[in-house]
From TrEMBL:
This is Efflux RND transporter periplasmic adaptor subunit. NCBIfam families: RND_mfp (TIGR01730). Residues 308-367 form the Multidrug resistance protein MdtA-like C-terminal permuted SH3 domain. Residues 215-301 form the Multidrug resistance protein MdtA-like beta-barrel domain. Residues 110-168 form a coiled coil. InterPro entries: MdtA-like_b-barrel, MdtA-like_BSH, MdtA-like_C, MdtA-like_HH, RND_pump_MFP. Pfam families: Beta-barrel_RND, BSH_RND, HH_MFP_RND, RND-MFP_C. Its main location: other. Keywords: Coiled coil, Membrane, Transmembrane, Transmembrane helix. It is found in: Cell envelope.
């Protein structure tokens, strides 16, 4: 009985010793190395190789139509307004009779001036005959030299009187003509005018205003920076830009396009201190009267090209803390971020002013899969149309 007890204790001690040894071995054994995961392949990205080219540079501005000129019609003589020869607001042509002023007082003045002119002519005839007679008598030494001098003076005074009376006749004739007021230009008239029977004051009373619509002006503005950029583009060309190179197209608010092109007429040589802009004026044919003064239009300027420009697709451009950047794939197929300076947005991309050059390969597809400094698998793509 005692022997069995000792045998049991020995067996239990062996079991405890085995368990303790197994635990010590478990905690003190060297850690096994985890299996190394296979590195993922470089991401596939679409790239475009950049080339420089002459790129059309479309420009768009807000503009306003202005009449070619607005002519204020005023009378050159005073009098009672007898008749208006047109409907208010109607279009009149050059030479159309607009107003008639009572001419009777001016006709009477003309008659008096003509009568005085006739008297002056008669007096001149008399003085010239007297001069000839006295001249003969003096030559025969029958009359004194003083008589000849008096005859010459009388003749010269009669000649001066002729000139004076002729000027009076001419002035009176003009005043009679001024009582009929004609249109100096073609265009629509204003919708208000003095009623018939009004006393018109010379040079003061505004009778109507005629706005010449053909051709029509369109005014729009450039900023100072835009003007300097265009000057730089012009200087970089072999042949500098002129008004014949630049075409102007008009677009109405509903999207309709004016059927005829215009051209730049002139520009202001000063900057508006209130807006910092420079006024540009274009001229358009307006035979049908489709352009009305005060009308707002969209001005599209074409014909300007930027030489040796680099265009980057919009999908390639990202924004960071330092501004716009693109991923450039270098010769070892490693993508690296590069800051760029953008010049102008086009339909198919951005013109880059600084940061890229011809031959650079940039990522245009799969930008989100790129990690700066890591390798990529570039796949060429078609460049954007210019």
């Amino acid at each position: 009985m005692i022997a069995r007890t000792w045998v049991g204790r020995i067996v239990a001690a062996c079991v405890v010793a085995a368990v303790i040894g197994a635990g010590v071995f478990w905690w003190t054994r060297p850690a096994s190395k985890p299996a190394t995961a296979a590195a993922p392949p470089p991401p596939e990205v679409g790239i475009v190789q950049l080339t420089a080219a002459d790129v059309p540079l479309p420009l768009q501005f807000a503009g306003r139509v202005a009449g070619f000129r607005a002519v204020e019609i005023r009378s050159q003589v005073s009098g009672i307004l007898l008749k208006r020869g047109y409907n208010e607001g109607a279009v009149v042509n050059v030479g159309d009779v607009l107003f008639r002023i009572d001419p009777r007082s001016y006709e009477a003045t003309l008659s008096r001036a003509q009568a005085q002119a006739a008297q002056a002519r008669a007096a001149l005839t008399q003085t010239e005959e007297n001069y000839k007679r006295v001249e003969g008598l003096v030559a025969q030494k029958v009359s004194a030299q003083k008589s000849l001098e008096d005859a010459i003076a009388a003749r010269d005074q009669a000649r001066a009187a002729i000139q004076s009376t002729q000027a009076d006749v001419q002035t009176a004739t003009l005043n009679v003509e001024y009582t009929v007021i004609k249109a100096p230009v073609t265009g629509p008239t204003s919708i208000t005018s003095p009623p018939e029977g009004t006393l018109v004051q010379a040079q003061q009373t505004l009778l109507t205003t005629i706005t010449q619509l053909d051709p029509a002006y369109v005014n729009f503005t450039f900023t100072d920076s835009e003007m300097r950029a265009l000057d730089e583009i012009s200087k970089s060309r072999e042949k500098q830009l002129d008004s014949d190179d630049v075409k102007v197209e008009l677009q109405f608010g509903d999207g309709a396009v004016y059927p005829q092109l215009g051209k730049v007429d002139t520009r202001s040589r000063t900057v508006d201190p209130r807006t910092g802009t420079i006024l540009i004026r274009a001229v358009f044919p307006n035979h049908e009267g489709g352009l009305l003064p005060g009308q707002f239009v969209r001005v599209n300027v074409t014909g300007i090209t930027m030489p040796d420009a680099i265009v980057v697709p919009k999908a390639a451009i990202s924004q960071g803390p330092l501004g716009a950047f693109v991923y450039v794939v270098e010769a070892d197929n490693v993508a690296r971020a590069r800051q760029v300076r953008l010049a102008r947005e086009l339909v198919n991309g951005w013109i880059v002013r600084k940061g890229l050059s011809t031959g650079d390969r940039i990522v245009v597809d799969g930008v989100m899969r790129v990690r700066p400094g890591n390798a990529v698998r570039p796949v060429p793509m078609a460049p954007p149309p210019k």
